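Teaching note: in complex prediction, the entire set of molecules is handled at once rather than each chain in isolation. The prompt given to students was simply: 'Predict the structure of this complex.' The entities are:
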Amino acid sequence: MSDVLLEVKNLTRTFDVSLPWLNRVIERQERQFLRAVDDVSFEIRRGETFALVGESGSGKSTIAKMVVGLLKASDGEIHFDGTPMDVNSSAAMTQLRSRFQMIFQSPFASLNPRWRVRDVIAEPMKAFGTVDGKAAIDKRVDELLDLVGLGASDAGKFPHEFSGGQRQRIAIARALSSNPEFIVCDEPTSALDVSVQAQILNLMRDLQDELGLTYLFISHDLSVVRHMANRIGVLYLGALVETADGKELFNAPRHPYTRMLLEAVPDLDMTGKEHTVVKGEIPNPISPPPGCTFHPRCQYVADRCRSEIPVPVPTPTGEAKCFAVEEGRI
Amino acid sequence: MDDVLLSVRDLVVQFPTRGGILTALDGISFDIKRGEVLGVVGESGAGKSMTGAAIIGLIEPPGRIAGGQIHLDGERIDNLSMDDMRAIRGRRIAMVFQDPLTSLNPLFTIAEQLVETIQTHMAVSAREARERSIALLDDVGIPAASRRIDDYPHQFSGGMRQRVVIALALAAEPDLVIADEPTTALDVSVQAQIIDVLKRLCSERGASVMLITHDMGVIAETADRVAVLYAGRLAEIGPVRDVIKDALHPYTHGLMGSIPTLAQEDDRLVQIPGSMPRLTDIPQGCAFNPRCDRVFDRCRIERPEPIPHGTRQVACWLYDEQQIKAAE
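The expected output is the structure of the full assembly:
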């Protein structure tokens, strides 16, 4: 059994965003493609939390969807526990699916309002046939509710009777019901208030320790990521610009974009340090800038960055895609 | 007390519902001084936005201000007629909403919207209004303002749209800008830019700001004082540094501990058990008492009013004189 649970190699996803063909003919336009995910590779070891951070449009959720097989990759491979994932083979996917689950951002949209909590949580068990018999399923539902901090009496209620945080607990119980090893969490707390967010984050860490889960944790919030992740990948315009161990990334960020993101986080400790305000915004992903896609906003830009595409260079605990890092300028 | 721009006293906002009267704001009092940035924080349903809506007179019927007074510059504004309020809204109190896409009209260019706003509130010619608009867009940091002014909202990115909204809010040189979650819909790098613009322009123009947000980080960077709301009541109000570094109210204390920060090593987050009560179901006594770890008998019976404590006011029996004496 190897140490690596999930391996993603050169994953790419393009979306066709062309105008209808008639418009293209009349307006003499080319087909247009949006590269939402661009040659992304990473590994997640067993029992670890790997986080992907990035701003909107950086491809975080697209990667999550491809990892769980909800979206086909345009190119590249995903290996789960050494087995390549083949989205076209439904038999193989069904087998794999019981081993990974997903927690979505909005617990208001991810629970069927007409189903009782018992049925919501029992569905994966029925679908994968992991637990047989109504009595056994009910018993397992009660156990799961208890595990996520709700009571067995909540099983008969409907989702609308719960607050946002409680609903997210139900979503977690559902994700756990097929005994998965791996859970993809796509912004699991961004719809919640901070005090509730703290409850959910603590719960997720306790469950990880208790059940030995592996997480792919997706978030735009660097403070949350710092709290949860062992390893972190920073996405910019669909490409992984830096990967590093959690502590290392926050103590010694390499890539200029990572530095910028850390710089932009409001400072709750009120040290009174001056911010260098970040320039510009994320460019349109349909026509990304040539060379390094970050160069128009980068303060370390050189001629080479404008024309050549950087390749990953090793850093103490990971790698970074940046010429300035490669040349030792920063 | 000439430097107080806005004073809110015992504000009560109620909504009649089928299940009885729902009290969304229950006896809130605070002042905003001239040129001051007051942060208002709280979780969803705490009454942050409702406070803003009450001040600017935009509470949706059947909701109504059921008690208390709001004074702007010494003049009472909570009981004005629709027309009188309209003269104040936009001119003396302006508002920046959370979602910049819905606060701009998609069918009009930025120029048309800005010029209309300026001409509504000021007696200037169309040409002058347009020149002012361009200057405003320049101020909020829109590149090539004179060219982009004739664009439609959809041609701007989220961050740029929020800059336009800020320009609109500042168009009539208001005394008070109410910013309701102005950066919540934006990415963190853009958020820093917008906060910077809002802070700089308001201090240049001497406008006061009421910054409503759930993000303590934004408050820490921006506000002079902060008011913490819980279940429609004021829990604590005071200078930002004091409240953040040394929270008095147990709720504020828990709230601060539950925020993951970049500096913190990876210990567990403090968590407040349970969640905020529904407004129809507020417990007797202090609204926070079922979740509070320092609760005692009095909290379950009597409701605490804000008690002055140093630079701050805190609605908690722990800071009542009798209680302090008894503890000693």
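Point out the following to students. Residues 4-99+181-326 of chain A form a domain with the Rossmann fold fold (CATH 3.40.50.300). Residues 126 and 132 of chain A are 8 Å apart (CA to CA).
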